[in-house]
Amino acid sequence: MEAHDFCARATVLLVEHEPVIRTRVAIFLGEAGFEVVEAESPEAVWSILEARPDVRVMVADLDVAEGTDGLELARSVHLRWPSIGLVITSGRGRPLRPPDVPGNGSFLPRPLPADILLHEVRMAARQRAA
After folding, report:
1. Within a 13 Å sphere around the CA of 53, how many CA atoms are in the beta-carbon half?
2. Confidence (pLDDT) at 9
3. pTM of whole model > 0.85?
4. How confident is residue 68, by pLDDT bands cut at 50, 70 and 90?
């Protein structure tokens, strides 16, 4: 199996509290060949990760939910599951530098072109597949 094929079939955990955004991104990633598991809260993230060892990438909004910081969530996930690639997004103008995201993850400000999101998710999956 080629690395590209493996990455396209990777399982992505999508963490977004806004249902419309979550649905649009999930559909887009699903059409690109990823298996997408959706979570709207940190509690759901922990439940999913405990039950789904096949998750290769987590895409999370910087503002996960009221009172929850997506970067802190990413740090906690990375500590427990360092093999999960991380892509953090935000539309609130709070940019992060690459070293701010654990595990060589990436930060993408929104709105962002779909091809850039797809590239970063593929890179995160490929990095973990190597």
Report:
1. 0
2. 80
3. yes
4. confident
